[in-house]
């Protein structure tokens, strides 16, 4: 059966009648197979999940759903800890342990109750509970005062209290400082990656090769008809926000906009080729001092595929983009261009910025994937003159030496400065942190940056640009 799995991996990215027939036949055999090796099970799950998002036929889609729906059964007898790595966490019948923020913890506990508990075995900072429980349980306070190592788990059990009790009595900022690891047993919950779906009336079946980066031009996408956007009613928006929060949480991730979504201004857009995106800003009480915040999650044929985050200031936007590991081979450049087009049309953005972290600065995953060249080949430029010179030398090597790959050490140097797309070279050296350093604690100087009738928009823009430009060293 591992040979059938190897063949399935080979056929997952091929399309046409023969590919669809061979893929379906292999799925049929693997549907009946019982794999025991953890790595084989992981490969089966990720391959089938990819095929569920990029199906060659309706039969492939149906078989993919059957296999994914049975994964809880398939993992019986296998060590569940082997499935908790962030790259593959979230498979049905597995679990995960991490310290979520107050808002995420409260949402999960409210909706999943007994499936969420304090992971006492992995609580390295349980001493922080002392000051909190001393206030809530007086006798525990005495224990904390005079004993070197109180057993806080025993105190919870003897007082018959639980995580929900603690969340009801502790302020959010205090809870976050406690760094409590939570254990989430997924079981066959719809939060598991194997089962998470949004309904989609029309499935996009892939009968031809996928769009590659060479097929994509951002400018050409900008010239296509406007993307239609519709507003989602608050009740449905709340359900979608819960699903989006869960989808991130099972991957050990939190996003500001998913933790604090504006359900009253929640939108959907069909980007084409089976891709839906749901996006929103944040409510007034959670807005940032200067930049507009928008976050969104995109789905391929109903399967969560990744998320995008945009921080906009006038016509400039810093874009954070993450495609989940499973789908890295699937039309990434086309999807990225469509997202930029959506922000351009909805928010008036004409200049896009990529943070160095996305390119590989202190991010080995981006170095390994060659993220810098993904953006460069789409037309992004470096904001650094020094890096621009290095890019030119590397591009000469690429042109002269077929098969040449930029070494990791050079990729790290290329990732030391932001990348920019679009007009507005005046934004090339802009840095939000520099504004914070320049303004400091001065309330009067900070107020100059806020929109007021006494400060014309152009003057405000010029001031922000000036304050956000680091001095040359």
Q: Give, in spatial order, the strands making up the sheet with the most strands.
A: 4-5-6-7-8-9-10-12-11
Spatial extent as radius of gyration: 25 Å
Q: Report strand %.
A: 5-15%
Question: In which range does the helix fraction lie?
Answer: 40-55%
Main sheet summary: 9 strands, mixed
Strand segment tally: 12
**Span of the ends, CA to CA:** 61 Å
Number of helical stretches of at least 4 residues: 23
Query: Average pLDDT value?
Result: 93
Given as residue ranges, the uncertain stretches (5+ residues, pLDDT < 50) are none
Name the shape in a single word. globular
Summarize the structure.
By secondary structure, the chain is α+β, with helices and mostly antiparallel strands. The protein has helices spanning 2-11, 17-32, 38-53, 58-69, 71-74, 102-112, 129-136, 138-146, 152-158, 163-169, 172-178, 218-222, 234-249, 256-259, 332-347, 356-359, 364-369, 371-376, 385-400, 408-414, 432-439, 443-449, 457-467; strands spanning 95-98, 116-118, 182-185, 229-232, 266-272, 275-280, 292-300, 303-313, 316-323, 351-354, 381-382, 419-422. The longest helix is centred in the N-terminal third of the chain and has 16 residues, at 17-32.
